[in-house]
Amino acid sequence: MKIGNATSLVTLLLGATVFSAPVFAQNTTSLKHTLVLEDLENPWDMAFLDDGTMFYTEKCKGLSVLLPSGETKALLGMGGSEGFASTADDLFCEGQAGMMGVAIDPNFANNRRIYVYSTSNMSTPHTNRLMRLEVSDDFSNVSGRTDIVDDVPYKMKASDHPFGGPGAHNGGRVRFNPGDGYLYLTTGDTHNGQVPQSPTMMGSKVLRIDTDGTAAPENTPPVGFDKRTYTYGHRNVQGIAFHPGTGTPIAAEHGPWHSDEITVLRNGGNAGWDPRPNMAGRGDCPDNYCGYSPNQMVGENRFARASWMPMTDFETYPSAMPPIWNNNGWSQGTSSAAFLEGDTWGDWDGAMVVGLMGIGFGGTPLGQRIDVLQLTDDGTEVIDVTEMTLPMEAGRFRSLVVGPDGSLYAAIDEGMIHKLTP
Amino acid sequence: MKTGSIIVIWLTILLGTSQAAAQDVEVGKSLYKKNCRACHGPTAKGLASYPKLVGHPAEYLVDRLERYRAGEKFGPNTPLMAPRAKKLSDEDISNIVTFIVTTFE
């Protein structure tokens, strides 16, 4: 019997082997767990209306909506997708790139607008775009696509780096700040050493714009910078949340082989990531990007790495925004952030939650989890960090969103959207 | 004879009896959960930038694991794969691959 014909064995083996459902952790908190959706393909983000309607993206498929009735409708597909009300042939996925963040206009009841961030091949080099769409009254389709941001860099070619395939580091979160009403878009460095400190390339930035894509006039980037820039010098920001008391944006981003960071953003601030070669005592680096150096393919002490290629380089940029948390120096895939709100959360009311996807490299603990960060009242310091004891199996926590019912919704790459209710 | 060929032959022999195969699938399942699942997913369909394992013949999967184990550098995920593969014995590779090719579609 050839192993290539192993499919024929499946029935036989299944008869002798019990493939049980996932074994849930025994030590759960009082959180109640509901599986909202499953069998999705890399769900990336969600956005809610007050009645519980949930828009969600799948990285390689497109945009869909789950209605309060339980019915789902596939709205806008990527190129080649089937079963969607419409498809946009320029949208594609590759590596980490694809359809990512989604946000709902605060004035949705009147303008029916939503905002979706996706990779597009409409231009060459390809880019990441923030699209504005209008949802039909019956939630059956979207129309009126307007690309309000069309120039966020995309990595076209593979490079000699870990995770070095095309499509790396796009950022991807899209959120409205209830405090100032502006739309925030987070981007990434695309494994390009020049991008983070570039005044004009819109990777490694947090953009603050209006719903037409125009820079917020209050933005104060350094002279010569694109006015859409709220902050710059980031590595790959996939999480942004706004302090419920102050409205201050707080970013969560991946570290390289060390130092995931939570950073309170300052208008015009520099996050201090500068992976250019021949900078800060470094020499040449593979493909002109020092982001994983030195010894980028081998495990090494994280603090030594942080000293050589810091996430926030205070020596070069003394006024860089300091992180308020660095995951004890580990890099475990910090991806998304939100603030819990409501009395039902008890002591966690007002706490920040951060999702980690897990990266087990070079002795780093895998770390798939949701952390609960207690901040000071002004949101500028971390008081305590607690790992949420989950009432379900952990996964690659890609997106955390607090729904209108006060529950915490968590999308994991494994294809599920969970609801956690206190 | 290459080690990969030996493993494939061994796999063939093991899979010849359902009881032994089931036992090795269980071992493979445990090894998969410990070493592979976090990146390649619970159904081996791949996650994010981690590739899918389903749809490949056993020979391919064995070859890849052996090359990573031997220290060969290929592909952008080598730094993640190599340390894990180095810990795997021929039997471990056999069990993991058996689990993958007999469990997932």
UniProtKB/TrEMBL annotation, chain A:
Signal peptide: 1-25
Highest taxon listed in the record's lineage: Bacteria
GO-annotated molecular function: oxidoreductase activity
Gene3D superfamilies according to UniProt: TolB, C-terminal domain
EC top class, as a word: oxidoreductase
EC number(s) given by UniProt: 1.1.5.-
PANTHER family: ALDOSE SUGAR DEHYDROGENASE YLII, HEDGEHOG-INTERACTING PROTEIN
Name of this protein: Soluble aldose sugar dehydrogenase YliI
Automatic annotation (TrEMBL), chain B:
Gene3D superfamilies: Cytochrome c-like domain (1.10.760.10)
InterPro entries: Cyt_c-like_dom (IPR009056), Cyt_c-like_dom_sf (IPR036909), Cytochrome_c_Oxidase_Subunit (IPR050597)
Domain Cytochrome c: 23-104
One GO MF term attached to the UniProt entry: heme binding
Superkingdom of the source species: Bacteria
Alphabetical list of PROSITE patterns matching this protein: CYTC (PS51007)
Annotated signal peptide: 1-22
The keyword Ligase is assigned to this record: no
Keywords for this protein: Electron transport, Heme, Iron, Metal-binding, Signal, Transport
Descriptive protein name: Cytochrome c-554(548)
Organism per entry: Roseibium album
